[in-house]
Amino acid sequence: MNENPLLKKFDTPYGSIPFNEVKTEHFIPALDQAIKEANKEVDTIIKNSSEPTFENTVLAMELVGEKLNKVATVYYHLFGSESDSELKSLSDKINPKLAKFNNDISLNAAIFDKVKHVYETQLSILSDEDARLTEITYLDFVRNGANLSEEDKIKIRSIDEQMSTLSPQFSNNSLNATNDFELWLEESDLDGLPEMVINSAKMEAKSKGEDHKWLVTLQFPSYYPFLKFSSRRDLREKLMVAYSTKCNGGKFDNTEICKKIAKLKHQRAQLLGYDNFADYVLEKRMAEKQSNIFKLLDNLYDASYSGAEEEMEELKKIAFELDGIRDLKPWDTVYYSEKLKQKMYNFNEDSLRPYFKSTNVMKGVFEVAKKMYGLNFVKLDNIQTWHKDVNVYDVKEENGEHVGLLYEDLFPRESKRGGAWMNELRSQGLEGKTILSPHVCLTCNLTKPTDSSPSLLNFNEVTTIFHEFGHCLHGLLSKRKYKSIGGTSVFWDFVELPSQIMENWVGETETLELFAKHYETDEIIPQELVNKIRSSKNFMSASMCLRQLSLGYLDMAWFGKDRNIENVEDFESNVLEKTSLLERIPGSSISCTLGHIFAGGYSAGYYSYKWAEVLEADAFEKFKEDGIFNRDTAKLFRDNILSQGNMKHPMDLYKKFKGREPKVEALLKRDGLISSVAN
């Protein structure tokens, strides 16, 4: 057992994970041993006959299971980033074991009594950070069933055990369905596609052993450009129907899983004394209650719907003008949006790609962090990774002090789930007697290099990098003593503020001049193109807002009340009727692939993207007023937002930065929707 790399101290640079040494067969033995050791640590706390104190109870619980956390972290990271069927299959064993362990603690009356004693008798004499950890620990016990009867505790255990397998099944089905579809093209099928898209399709085909065809998949960097540029309406339809209907029936069906997850979460919330799962979630959110969420969504709906209708009419007009199409379909909207954009702004967004070489974009985002926070990023070659495409950087302060490690994993592969995310491979905070530096990972699925060119990104992909990098800064710049209240361990509708605010820098001339250089000539992006980026930044903004609102409404429909849902497709159609501007594709289902709410942490929380947009639009106004690279403003943001974790209520933190609560008008103004709002 001692030879298991997951159980040994990581004798590597900066204590980084030895990915090259970790094999699939290591996980179950390591997990079992780590759980055994963690249970012994818990028993020691329980058997301590001394009066419960912060040190012998709350702090001791904070440090329980350090090995177990490492094993779980490595597994779940590989599950999302570099998995195969064997690794995926372990989830059916690993998740129930972890669920049982967590329940054994959260439902243990002896531990809870000790924590409760500290909370009720010593809170006022503790330091601010110790008191905050005590408060959070106590509330976590309560919210996970510590006060329930033994009968209800058994029910909670059963629910959590079932949930532990359902979410991974959902993710596996979604990934497998994505990998299962292939649209093979002949040369005659390439009409309208830019050279970059054609080359990417050629590379996909070659990777499958086919040298004389082209391949489009449901991976976003392949799927979306085809919808955007292909003049073949029949193929756009085929592709979008496949994308929209995956996991709604068939061998990768997620419909029953969606219904089961929603039902189980509702049952769990009711056992804990809440009317529904959303009420349970919102107890620890800035929004606090459903009425505040719907107030936000409805206000934005009122501001955007008429504008979205007008935008759709413009698409219908240009579709008829160019191709005589009278019945605009969902697979037409991306294509004719691009045509309309070109007409309105004389701007083909694909013309930006030569200026957005992925390596330059990463250098650019690093330079932004340097100008704002004094950070330096030094590439390392001695850190083990999970794939050859992954790069690792040593993050340093201006004075050379080590901050943490940043892992960068930018490109799609079949072993990797879709989307973009940040995760922590090691959280900042106390482990043993040492406060450890953070190791964070920036993961995307961007346009890959081809045989003829490096990875050249579109503007949205550049924005995605900046977004996820904002999350990384939140994890890297944490300055807390305890992991449980550090980094991104904040209210869910606050966690998107650091990421979404970073998107604002992408369209600024001062930023673009740092990295937007032609990959062949090194020419800085012409001001003409920058002006077109700015002038078109609100293009279709009302429609995009409506799209986000539809997902927010759908999420709340699933988790805001108990529903007896028989047919997922019909349920969706009813919920989304008010936000739909075109006839839905028969057989389509957003829910069945919406991992955010069924396999992530966004259940009853998808609204948080728009909630955080209000925060970041309002916050960025201060940067615009003071200068986007103003060190004093950046320090204010770092000291009051990025470094604080969950030390205080997020509204208190925000007010320390901005001096007041945020105003929704900032978002409406930025997105060009302010004129639609009634005075």
Describe the structure.
The chain has 679 residues and is α+β, with helices and mostly antiparallel strands. The protein folds into 4 domains: 13-106 and 108-147, Glutathione S-transferase Yfyf (Class Pi), Chain A, domain 2 (Up-down Bundle); 181-243, no CATH class; 252-347 and 541-606, Neurolysin, domain 3 (Orthogonal Bundle), CATH 1.10.1370; 354-535 and 609-676, Neurolysin, domain 3 (Orthogonal Bundle), CATH 1.10.1370.40. It has 27 helices and 9 strands. Strands 3-4-5-9-6 form a 5-stranded mixed β-sheet, sandwiched between helices. Strands 1-2 form a two-stranded antiparallel sheet. Helix 6 runs antiparallel to helix 7 (128-143), helix 14 (290-323) packs across helix 21 and helix 16 packs across helix 17 (459-476). The relative contact order is 0.10. The mean pLDDT is 96.
